[in-house]
Amino acid sequence: MALYSEKVMDHFRNPRNVGEIPDADGVGEVGNARCGDIMKIYLKIKDGIIEDVKFNTFGCGSAIASSSMATELIKGKPLSEALTLTNKAVAEALDGLPAHKMHCSVLAEEAIRAAIKDYYERHGIAYDKSQFPEPDEDKEIHEEN
Ligand code: FES
User: Cα separation of 106 and 86, whole Å?
Assistant: First the structure.
């Protein structure tokens, strides 16, 4: 069996929503200290809906595929829904990631969360801090695919 699903290969080769949004309403940047990969997510938000989303990822193929899939999953969705997106859901939408690559999908979940938090802070919107736990580098690293 191939190590990577066709969906992972597709999103790696033809990533959706790559780029920057110069007048973004929220920007989130996270990194993984172990592998050194970095992901940046830009959000354009109107009336609580994610109207547009772009990403820049300096990282491995799984991180690029995860960013691409995650942006597709939250585009056009309410912030409340984007906040519930888990790395596991991103990996499942990609038809799975190898266990040792699950941490790449964690970056996508964390970058989206960081961008939403940035949006709330920039716009002086009160938010529930418990929705934004500190990133945990070891999260899901041992998750089965
Ligand atoms: Fe670093 Fe994939 S190896 S995010």
Answer: 8
